[in-house]
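Discussion board: Methods & Data

I've been asked by a reviewer to show the raw model output for two of the constructs in my manuscript, not just the figures. I'm not sure how much to include, so I'm pasting the format here to get opinions. Each protein appears as its amino acid sequence followed by a line of discrete structure tokens. Is this the kind of thing reviewers expect to see in a supplement, or should I convert it first? Here is construct A:
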Amino acid sequence: MARKPALSTDKLKDLGADKLAQLVLEESERNAGFRRQVKAALAAKSGPESIAKLIDRRLSGLERAKSFIEWDKARAFADDLRSLTDTITSELGPAAPALAIDRILRFIATHEQVFERVDDSSGRVQDVYYQAIHATGQLASSLPAPNADALPEKIMTALGESMHGYLADVTEAVAPHLPQDSLTRWDGDLKNAIAERQAEEAARKSDGWFYSMTSQWAGMRQTLASARGDLDLLIALELKKKPHMQDTLGIATQLLEVGRSAEALEWVRKPGRRTFGKADDGLSPERVNLEARILDATGDRSAAQALRWRCFEARLSADILRDYLKQLPDFEDIEAEDRAHAFTLEKSDPDVALQFFLDWPRLDLAAKLIATHPHRWNGGDWHILPKIAGLLEHDHPLAATILYRALLDSILDRARSKAYGHGAKFLGKLALLAQEVDAIRPGTMTDHLTYVAKLKKAHPRKSGFWTRVGGGDPKMPQETAARGPIWVKDEG
């Protein structure tokens, strides 16, 4: 079969200007988004002001639009929005970044009214806005100093009351590219705005729940503090939050990076931000890793090692055990690793232990664990067990057989007809492994022929499965020249 010719700039140039122009014109007639890109490229020939006018017309249309966009039109709508932002960033941005950033902010400001009139369950439209937010940082890095200095005021004018959090996202994107004086002035303006808004809200008669911009503005102040390198202000702002909202690990990390280990240790041990649905016992691998690093920095290496081992015992984290072993002298790490593996084999939750041995990796111990708990594995875990069985079947056929049987039993017991093809494949695997497994299987485990006989006795009417199986091996559906596969109706 001949290979399709690959497209490249040089090959397209060989077509000649007339042929390329004709192709562009034909595609423009079919594709509205492409047509707009072509018009923008043509406008660029007249200078950035011409592109800006073209963009302004499209932004005005977006701002005026009121009609609802159904779900089946959302993809085309998102493509149209992406074409608009691409024009701003790719055509206008290189020529006039100050004009481009004004337009990209104007586009981002349309998000609330756009979300109200589009079914964006796929998230495509939202992705376009996130890409636009990311582009503000790239454009800000190209701004001349006077334009960069004026950017905070423009951002607040365009997005100052946005409830979707995009104001904070834009701040995070542009802050690293602004002059220090601009950051300081912006922080002062936000501080005053927070005080004024809080006074207004305190005087307001309570009429139920309402959204306050002050929390978003306070978060922006922290972003600005980080950009200015003002860690003390960042901490002071964090302390104003309720304890369960504080980013204790983030603050501890920054304190450790600047050598303030004693303060870092206080922060890492605070309860801090809660993760929904998870109890914080202080032994999450993320927290333990950071606290152990801080303890090492303070010189208390024994406490750091004790913490790592305690976390390993609680969570069976492979990463934490690796950190623990790295800190041990030569040869001691070998003994400690053997002790860790012995502990894991005796773990009360075999599922967690199995994941550890796969992460380490020690497939021999994973196989031993599976064989030790042959009835523990849930064949309903179809998203992970086939892969594990595949890893084990070459060197550890007994463990692979246990998993394949669990998977097949689950498919047939639940009459999962859509998975019968997989079940036939698993039975074929079991047949291939049978000779080797029957020589080493424990007495409590039936041989392959007995196992298949029990399946036939327990599931005699599942013809949708048995028609795919012949003598324990997978059997593909029959085909003819005139018809597709002949499937036998399942009576199970």
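Construct B, same format:
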Amino acid sequence: MMNMHQDSVSLGSYEQMAEYYFSDVDNKPYNAYYERPATLSLLPDAAGKTILDAGCAAGWYTGWLLEQGAAEVTAVDFSPAMIEMTRKRVGERARLVCADLNEPLDFIRDDSTDIVVSSLALHYLKDWNPVLREFYRVLKPDGTLVFSVHHPFMDFTVFKRENYFLTELLDDEWDTATGPVQVQFYRRPLGSIISSLLEAGFTLDAMLEPMPTEDFRKALPESYDKLTRRPQFLFIRARKSAK
């Protein structure tokens, strides 16, 4: 049985949303036409690579990476239901592990992974230092970390916070096909995001605040207009220094 860290938030929410994620989220414009194009633009070629999908949810990236010819994909999520959705998508073609990113990734060897990708997962962790140290440890020299998170500006303004420089837990409600779901996550300033990366030993390679795609405009024109003026997500690529 997996040990849940005291800072794990929204586990119940994701257990509740697993089927919804599997059936609906692949096609939601914010995922399909905004988050995914930006994340994919930062990823190196996956063919022949050993890859960690950290916070795999219902396994879209796991499936995509396998389609690109990845040699080995380890998909990790703290939600047993999400792991089952990933299994439903990819079968036994990936190594699926139910684990909390707050805890050591002791099932992955040092210097064994070419790429770590983490899509919209790290904002569920209060302290990034342990997980980034683990990402650094498992990556090969010159390995790549690509992740997306809520944009600090978005969380600060939408949730009307008073002190931008705090790291704090936020409460939200998401509309899903099966009804509203309460979700919690952490917001933090941009400086905290970057300093955590640098302290773990990474070199910042790229940072994106992308425009939504034309497909997004066709699907949600009003939201498209907002996203051209206010970013929703932040995208970062970082590297482990070659030895």
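Answer (T.O., handling editor elsewhere):
This is acceptable in a supplement if you add a one-line summary per construct. For B, something like: Residues 11-240 form a domain with the Rossmann fold fold (CATH 3.40.50.150).
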